[in-house]
Amino acid sequence: MNILAIDFGTKNLGLAWCSEGLDLILPYGRIQTQNPEQRDQELIALVKNERIEKVVVGLPLGMQGEENVNTERIRNFVEHLKKQLDIEFDFVDERFTTQQASNTAGDISSDEKSAMIILETYLQKAKDS
Q1: Are 37 and 89 in contact (CB under 8 A)?
Q2: Where would I find the YqgF/RNase H-like domain in this sequence (predicted)?
Q3: Could you say which DSSP state residue 96 is in?
């Protein structure tokens, strides 16, 4: 199963990819978010072209685990995508991923690093359950 992770930022969607069963998570680029229609078209095309079967999205909860304006924005984004894609979606608590990403060495963008951390968290939880 091909899985795509998304870190939804104010300027870019950071992307990471893996094939379930492989122990390798790869950065998968960024999509600019300034034009929501173009962003969604690019993402939908990517999901279809790469035969993505599941999308995992980072959910920016507050420090106490509460939902907020950003959480609502991301839930609305996912609901919009669900209407256009017949695949599974899941959420991962993304608190501290930006901080973790900034502490991670490498030449890839912090958006992609955050998406990789989101996907790693998701896969670890799936493995533990």
Answers
A1: no
A2: 1-101
A3: T
Residue 91 burial by Cβ neighbours in a 10 Å radius (0-12, 13-18, 19+): middle
Q: Are 95 and 63 a contacting pair, CB within 8 Å? A: yes
- The pTM of this model reads 0.89
Name the 3-class secondary structure at 89.
strand
Query: What's the chain's average pLDDT?
Result: 89
Closest CA to 6 of 66, 107, 85: 85
In whole angstroms, give the CA distance from residue 58 to residue 7. Answer: 5
CA distance 27 to 15: 6
Contacts of 114 (CB under 8 A, 6+ apart): 7, 9, 14, 58, 94, 97, 98, 100, 101
Backbone phi, psi, residue 7, to 5°: -105, 110
Q: Provide the residue type at 105 as one letter.
A: A
pLDDT tens figures, 53-96: 999 999 998 888 888 999 999 999 999 999 999 999 999 998 76
